[in-house]
Please model this.
Amino acid sequence: MPMMRALYSLAVWLAQPLVRRKLRRRAVAEPLYGEHVGERFGHYTQPAPAPAAGEGPLVWLHAVSLGETLAAATLVTALRAQWPGMRLLLTHGTATGRAAGVRLLQPGDVQVWQPWDTLGAVRRFLAHFRPQIGLLMETELWPNLVAESARAGVPLCLVNARLSEKSLRQAKRLAWLARPTYRGLHAAWAQSEADALRLRQLGAPVRGVMGNFKFDMAPNATQLAQGHAWRGASARSVLLFASAREGEEAMLVEVLKQNGPLAPVDIAQAAPETIANAVQWLVVPRHPQRFDEVAALFAAAGYTVARRSQWGAGGPVAADVWLGDSLGEMALYFGLAHSALLGGSFAPLGGQNLIEAAACGVPVFMGPHTYNFAEAAQLSAEAGAAFACADLADAVQRAMAMLQHPAALAQAQQAALNLGAAHRGAAHRTAQALAAVLAEKRP
Model:
């Protein structure tokens, strides 16, 4: 083993008590973090899926969190169509990812936590499950996971791969560890040409550009229809702050305070100085552990808050701010919204996924920080489905202005729908490429 990876392996081995302590803390707010902890360290109670004559391969798919898991659903569907009888070994790093991943499982599949990147945990994981191929979604690379997969003869592929300029700079600063890790992959398929170029700079064996799986995702039709129905019953236009990140809700409070108390306003008659109060605000934080904190923030600022968990079957109740405090209902929230602000883009956090908004026909106003989704942001802006703004105040003003012009709003909504239709097919193309990888393994 190279000296630098040996030092890294020692460091992650020594960090295990800290990992266990962090999991205990996270489990206070999200109990799933306290379950099946042994899996994190390569100890399993469930057997590996047993092979049977005529079955498809055992495919290991790692989707670290919620966004990757939702996008992975399209690839899993394509793989099952390609390999009837395929068995799925699904791993995650976060509680939201694991909770969402349950919906991808069929009888014979297995779901466990990603092993912590010690040599022992990774080797026990690979020896126990013996996958025939491994797929890592988007960005999730760990040095021992990559090296030990190669040693065990498991072709490990990075799919729907992306790498921002910021991440590239960080990787270059740790080139002694990052370059062997990227070079150790069996193959990678990038979302965009720009991602492919950056990945190749680190030595990744990029075999092609497939596009983004998220364009293949169809929103939940039931949720979307319910959101549309509730939107139609609202007296005000609904503006969604989607996947808001820490600090951004406080920015919104400051913008709203500059325009006085929230009150129902007829958008058609509203003066520019009162335009920020002419909508029904719907705020959906990105991380569930912040739901209570965000509710308290708006309440402390003097706004009434109606939480999704308290709406009941009748839908939203009257309040200054509706708070989306549920998981797996973004289609419902986009269905409620006429337009949206993009969370993570107003603080220097890299932005969030714009593509789900487009699939729901919701135009997006985004801040200057979209480096994690640069390709999707550029495509959306070029299509007229998203609008780059200087800051949150600018985004609020421009979103309000569009709500005053129904024709412009309708045009942007249609552009959003057209964007998704124009970029589908990445999951199917990737599934075909993976079939070739398994064919390479056969004698």
